[in-house]
Amino acid sequence: MLVVGLGVTGAGVALDAATRGLTVVAVDAHDLAFGTSRWSSKLEHRGLRYLANGQLRVARECAVERGILLTRTAPHSVHPLPMVLPLGPMVAPEQGAIGAVGLRLGDALRVGAHTPRGALPAPRRLSPAEALELAPELHRQGLRPRD
Fold it and tell me: pTM of this prediction?
């Protein structure tokens, strides 16, 4: 198989083909870290940035594609990672509420994309102890308990 272009999609296609036993030739105009993919984290995200910018169609498309990756195309290489948004003394309650609304909208996109909770758990509030377990570098002082 010939894969032209080694951004995140091309690299994923080459990896998938190779793991299926195909012989793969991958070419790109530059090295693997040259193009726009070098600036991204390589994480499949919930599309919250697009939601925040009012780009609902793009956010929905991200959710649909993420669901396909998680359930059909690449469940062997794509998996959910925990994300912690600490609510400490520097975060106003209004900012925390806005973040919670964004996470709920992101979960609504998951539902709309028909991605099962087993593949992508819903967002939830963590106790300070749970937050510190996932992110031990957080400052313990001032973490708000969940309501």
Answer: 0.67
User: With the C-alpha atoms ordered 59, 65, 69, 70, is the resulting torsion angle positive or negative?
Assistant: positive
Buried b (16+ CB within 10 A) or exposed e, 32-62: eeebebeeeeeebebbbebbeeeeeeebbeb
Q: How far apart are CA 24 and CA 14, in angstroms?
A: 6
Query: Is the Cβ–Cβ distance between 6 and 32 less than 8 Å?
Result: yes
Instruction: Write out the chain's pLDDT in tens, 147 residues.
Output: 999 988 777 888 898 899 899 999 999 887 766 665 555 555 566 677 788 888 889 889 888 888 988 899 888 878 888 888 887 788 898 998 888 888 889 899 999 999 999 999 999 888 888 989 999 988 888 777 765
Please work out, in degrees rounded to the nearest 5, the angle formed at the alpha carbon of residue 124 by the alpha carbons of 119 and 128.
Answer: 130
